[in-house]
């Protein structure tokens, strides 16, 4: 998300990353608010619905034991089943309803809330901070400037009894868990930005109560592997001694990575780069507004296709705008090849 509010720019990690990798992609996504036409994907919806369930799961909303699993799965079915059956193609087996529901059920059965190593703070689950458009207190990237603001949503702020400190936890669904996954998230920019913002935000909560804020130890990533599970009704699993159709959900893999710490130098480096990127985003927003006011030109005239050099076109998975760019990225083709994104402007 990147948006203008009363003359001020509000950015999130997602928009900072998009614009850093490729200004054209950032402009298409967050200034023009577009996605490829007819390219509805199950991946973001699956992540959203899993997050919804995990908020209730770790917030104690579903009760305990077997009944808690049933209640959580009912919530997941209400939010995802119809969508998955409508959208998932035959080749997208891992995200189809049958497999996705077994993955989540397997995760819940293996990770009961009382076994979680940290104590979640109920009022700080999926908590949004810095949303001035909703009346929240601002988080300035630069205390001397009121025009560049940061916004974030923390999946979980939890208490670690061992270190006597808070820890941030971010839930992630991933196609494959490996050693590379751990290395990737150890230096993930989202973790750096979230820790920087969380320290400012938590400090304010305690200062308002006249108390000294505890430290935030680091950032954890709660990884859930969403690959296709074995489901053969005839073949027997050597590990569990039953057919794969019965034990498939027991093969779900998950891992809590971290806590990963950030040095003050890393957080300051992130902040400086976030300011620089935000200034570029603001420049593109201003140019887009001038184009609209004059009735000529497009923000795409100024948005650099950095993906051609950074590798963002393919290295992070094929960019959703790759086909549009292959046509020459002409503004005249926007309405033909692209449509409005449904989450445009959401935090």
What report would you give on this structure?
With 347 residues, the chain is an alpha+beta fold. The chain folds into three domains: 2-35 and 272-340, no CATH class; 40-115; 117-262, no CATH class. The protein has twelve helices and ten strands. The strands form three sheets. Strands 4-6-7-8-9 form a five-stranded mixed beta sheet, sandwiched between helices. Strand 6 (152-160) and strand 7 (165-174) form a beta hairpin. Helix 4 runs antiparallel to helix 5 (97-110). The longest helix is centred in the last third of the chain and has 31 residues, at 264-294.
Characteristic key phrases:
43% helix, 12 helices, three-stranded mixed β-sheet, alpha+beta, 347 residues, five-stranded mixed β-sheet
Strand order, main sheet: write it out. 4-6-7-8-9
Radius of gyration (CA) equals: 22 Å
What structural class do the secondary elements suggest?
Answer: alpha+beta
SSE order, one letter for each helix or strand: EEHHEHHHEEEEHHEHEHHHHE
Domain module tally: 3
Number of strands: 10
Number of helices: 12
Short description:
With about 350 residues, the protein is of the alpha+beta class. Helix content is about 45%, strand content about 20%. Helix 1 (about 15-20) crosses helix 2 (about 25-30) and helix 7 packs across helix 9.
């Amino acid at each position: 998300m990147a948006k203008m509010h009363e003359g001020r720019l509000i950015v999130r990690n997602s928009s900072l990353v998009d614009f850093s990798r490729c200004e054209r992609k950032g402009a298409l996504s967050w200034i023009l608010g577009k996605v490829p036409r007819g390219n509805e994907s199950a991946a973001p919806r699956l992540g959203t619905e899993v997050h919804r369930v995990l908020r209730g799961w770790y917030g104690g909303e579903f009760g305990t034991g077997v009944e808690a699993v049933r209640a959580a799965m009912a919530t997941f079915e209400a939010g995802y089943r119809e969508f998955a059956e409508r959208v998932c193609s035959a080749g997208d087996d891992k995200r189809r309803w049958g497999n996705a529901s077994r993955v989540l059920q397997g995760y819940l059965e293996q990770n009961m809330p009382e076994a979680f190593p940290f104590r979640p703070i109920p009022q700080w689950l999926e908590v949004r901070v810095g949303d001035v458009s909703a009346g929240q207190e601002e988080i300035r990237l630069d205390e001397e400037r009121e025009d560049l603001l940061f916004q974030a949503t923390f999946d979980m702020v939890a208490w670690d009894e061992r270190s006597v400190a808070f820890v941030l936890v971010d839930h992630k669904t991933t196609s494959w868990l490996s050693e590379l996954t751990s290395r990737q998230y150890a230096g993930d920019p989202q973790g750096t930005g979230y820790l920087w913002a969380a320290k400012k935000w938590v400090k304010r909560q305690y200062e308002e109560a006249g108390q000294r804020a505890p430290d935030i130890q680091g950032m954890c990533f709660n990884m859930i592997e969403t690959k296709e599970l074995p489901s053969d009704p005839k073949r027997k699993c050597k590990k569990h001694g039953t057919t794969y159709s019965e034990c498939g959900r027991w093969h779900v893999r998950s891992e809590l990575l971290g806590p990963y710490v950030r040095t003050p130098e890393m957080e300051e480096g992130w902040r400086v780069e976030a300011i620089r990127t935000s200034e570029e985003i603001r420049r593109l927003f201003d140019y887009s507004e001038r184009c609209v006011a004059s009735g000529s030109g497009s923000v795409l005239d100024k948005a650099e296709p950095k993906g051609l050099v950074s590798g963002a076109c393919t290295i992070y998975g094929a960019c959703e705008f790759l086909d549009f760019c292959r046509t020459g990225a002409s503004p005249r083709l926007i309405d033909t090849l692209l449509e409005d994104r449904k989450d445009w402007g959401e935090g």
